[in-house]
Amino acid sequence: MSLYSAARRQPSAVLLVVQLLGVLIYPLTEGSRGGRLAFETFGIVVLVLAVFSVRSTPGLTWVSIGLGIPAVALSFIDVYNSSDVVVAVSSVFHAAFYFYAAYSLLRYMLSDHDVSTDELYATGATFTLVAWGFAYLYVFVQVLVPGSFIAAVAPSNDRTWMELLFLSFTTLSSTGLSDVVPISSWGRSVVMIEQLAGLGYVAMVVSRLVGLTISRRTT
């Protein structure tokens, strides 16, 4: 089965797998221009799959495309002509795109009381989309207020994308295992919002799907 066929049948599952592969691939792309180009190319694949997932939901495709195209374009500009303005604007577009895709998948999961296999995968895919969105918000905050996040290793440097993504995952999942710490007021504000989002996601979305799945199996 081709990737296109799989994406048509279970887009949320494909999106989740690609997002998780990204977590493993990103460390290989750090530290070189070629690596950054590979990183952005992989990002395009994720963005396209996210748009495809949104198309299978009540979300508006044109909104996803309208946010995704500037995000990709600004990412490539950043590779060859990086500046704080480009990084900040790119981060805003990326965050808006991922949050909108997550919102669309939420509407997809909450639209009825039947739980399909793809909706179960959408639970994980939505989580990763939200984590990516907050990671880009952290990038924006770091540009807005340099030194907003410190780490045990090289505390005086700006945090890398992988470090901020790690912070986002540990905050959203409420594990608290990150060695990256927000020290500015803006950084702490965004972290607190993500903590509340993670708690609400588990309490309202995950618990609902688990309840509906159990109810379906017992009837």
How is this structure best summarized?
By secondary structure, the chain is mainly α.
Question: What does this protein look like?
Answer:
With 219 residues, this protein is mainly α. The chain has one domain (3-218). Helices cover 76% and strands 3% of the residues. It contains eight helices and two strands; from the N terminus they run ααααααβαβα. It has helices at residues 3-9, 11-25, 33-55, 61-80, 84-110, 117-144, 161-172, 185-218, and strands at residues 149-151, 180-182. The radius of gyration is 18 Å and the shape is globular.
Topology at a glance:
Layout: H1 3-9, H2 11-25, H3 33-55, H4 61-80, H5 84-110, H6 117-144, E1 149-151, H7 161-172, E2 180-182, H8 185-218
Antiparallel strand pairs: 1-2
Helix pairs in contact: 1-2, 2-3, 2-6, 3-4, 3-5, 4-5, 5-6, 6-7, 6-8
H/E element sequence:
HHHHHHEHEH
* Tally of contiguous helical segments: 8
3D shape: globular
> Would you count the extended β strands for me?
2
What is the total number of structural domains?
1
How much helical structure, as a percent, in the residues?
over 70%
- In the predicted model, the low-confidence regions spanning at least 5 consecutive residues are none
Rg result: 18 Å
End-to-end separation in angstroms reads: 34 Å
Helix-and-strand structural type:
mainly alpha
Mean pLDDT across the residues is: 82
* Strand arrangement in the largest pleated sheet: 1-2
- What's the story with the biggest beta sheet? 2 strands, antiparallel
Strand content: under 5%
Question: Key terms for this structure?
Answer:
single chain; about 220 residues; mainly alpha; two-stranded antiparallel sheet; 2 strands; globular
